[in-house]
Here is the input.
Amino acid sequence: MAKSRGIKPRGTLEERLLRHVEKTDCCWLWRGARTKPAGYGVIGRGAAKDGMGLVHRVALELKLGRRLREGAWACHRCPGLAPCCAEADNRLCVHPEHLYEGSAQSNREDTIARGRVVIGDHHGARNGQAKLDDARVREIKRRIALGQSDAVIAADFEVVPATVWWIRKGVRWTHVQL
Ligand SMILES: [Zn+2]
Ligand SMILES: [Zn+2]
Here is the structure.
């Protein structure tokens, strides 16, 4: 198969990631592209078809040598002793030792993602969506109206993209008006 020229970015994913990192004695802070307005770092995973990844997630996957489990989160455990850690709370730290694969939410999120919950219930506080409330859903709807993608909104609100998709399609949280 002929290789397409000029599409694949230069360097390995790890090299490209580190190119935009400011290493302090503590955190490694991402200085590359970020989502707006939430400020998650993002990086192209490689070929165009692979899409964009959140940098702290990509950094953890490079450390683990595999993709994160479905529904798992890349969580931070920065030492919290230096100013960089406050900034890293803002999700920008990509130091491998400060990242771990979290699963506290994953079962519930996973359940929602697979659609095993009853979709007919319009009041989302039941059925495992308790961490969203009307105010947060209103904000999600506002962001949807602004044309932001499910993935970006989901990352900001720490829900799976399917949750945002359901709100977008008017399946869940229909009682919340913009
Ligand atoms: Zn850190
Ligand atoms: Zn730090």
